[in-house]
Amino acid sequence: MDKVEERKLWRLENIINVLSYLSIELNIAASEVKQFGRGIGAVSVEIKKFTMVFERDVFNRLKFENADFSEVEDRMNELGAMLRLLSINALLEAKRLNHSKAYILCDELRKIGESIQNILELPKGRKNFTMLNPDRAYPEPLPYVVFRIGSTYWAESMNSVMEAVNITPETLKDYPFGSGKMRHHVVVRGIKMPVINLHSEMNEKIVLTKDSRLVILNLGHILYGHTSSDMFFGLITDDIEYCGFLQKGVQEFATDENVPVDFVRYTWSAKDTILMFFNWDNIINEREIRDYLQIENKK
Question: pTM to 2 decimals?
Answer without folding.
Answer: 0.84
